[in-house]
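hey m, so remember when u said the tokens were messed up on ur end? i reran from scratch. heres the input so u can diff it against urs
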Amino acid sequence: MSNNSLKYMTGFGNEFETEALENALPIGQFSPQKVNYGLYAEQFSSTAFTAPRGENRRTWLYRIRPSVIQGDYELMDNGLLRSAPITEVPTPPTMLRWNPVAIPEQATDFIDGLVTMAANGSVNGQAGIGIHIYVANQSMEGRYFYNADGEMLFVPQQGRLRLKTECGILEIDAGEIAVIPRGMKFSVELPDGPVRGYICENYGNPYILPERGPVGANGYANDRDFQYPVAAFEDIEGDFEIVAKFSGQLYRADITHSPLDVVAWTGNSAPYKYDLARFNVMNTVSYDHPDPSIFTVLTSPSGTPGVANVDFVIFPERWMVAEHTFRPPYYHRNIMSEFMGLIKGVYDAKEAGFVPGGSSLHNCMSPHGPEAEVFEKASNAELEPVRYEDTLAFMFESRYIIAPTKYALEGQERQSDYLDCWKGIKKHFNGAK
């Protein structure tokens, strides 16, 4: 997993303080007339100033140079990166599935290797999500990136990422996730070579932990298991490039120093990571397959209570003990739209065709469920306690219809025969009980 030599602070959404040099943080105030070490004070706000205290997210950064020192932004080619609303092609109700996006042979860093599969809502209306695949084979060299359109949830599938941010360094591998707040600058290094993974770009309200309800005070994702970086800074000068995603478009500007020059910081708007193996799974110990909402790790609320802008849901290793029950996910149609990916192993409802690095989309009211062979196998299985091992799938579930991009619909990764997995479903009805 990640490099254990890195130090982290723990606790979801805590008010942290950390300094790479002793006494770099002001005491008793945020913006003194002069900051120690000749640093500049700069507030980073990822919610409105007047957001309620429990929802307000801001961090004070104490940096070598303020962020205003940079060149003019110039328009860039977006490549295969897109933002909502997707209007280049109509959105079909058809169930869709894709093979993994191949890691390029030519030199490709994180920015150049972003491929948008789908999106919903409106990037300028600050609602909905963008769903991207990243593929890269080299570190970002002399380049830095920030996304003004949304916070970024990283879900690695292959290869380790070192995320160097204004607040410090996070390392994540397959089986872990990281979230970088809207607007925070970072670069991506590849310590072990080529990488592939998924990104949910959240245009809406920042992720929070879902309520536990009658489950009580413990279970699901526990606050203590979320890790935040300690302060670490770069004091380097040279010819660098900063790339911004703003209003759905990429822009570039020259910068003569590293923007990762924050010597100390304090606040609650900061990048964080989480090991999905620490998720405390709740499941039935009697009968029936529970709704997938019991596997929600993070949620971005919308204006309607209980109906998410996006939920991040996982299907991890776990015990299945349900009695006299069809154990795979049941056939269903849903007002929510579901984009799924597979990190490792096999997903129990799709034993063939849905492979690590691949993805699927089942939109609002589009029927889906186990393929024909899975149904027959599960309907006739001897029901004993079974541990689902070597598996980790996830879902981005949203209240808004998820629109695939032109590339997703017409590209080589689309499995044109996906619907065939249900064609073998038999008619068992004979009028008898």
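this time it looks ok to me. Residues 6 and 289 are 40 Å apart (CA to CA). if urs says something different then somethings off w ur setup not the seq
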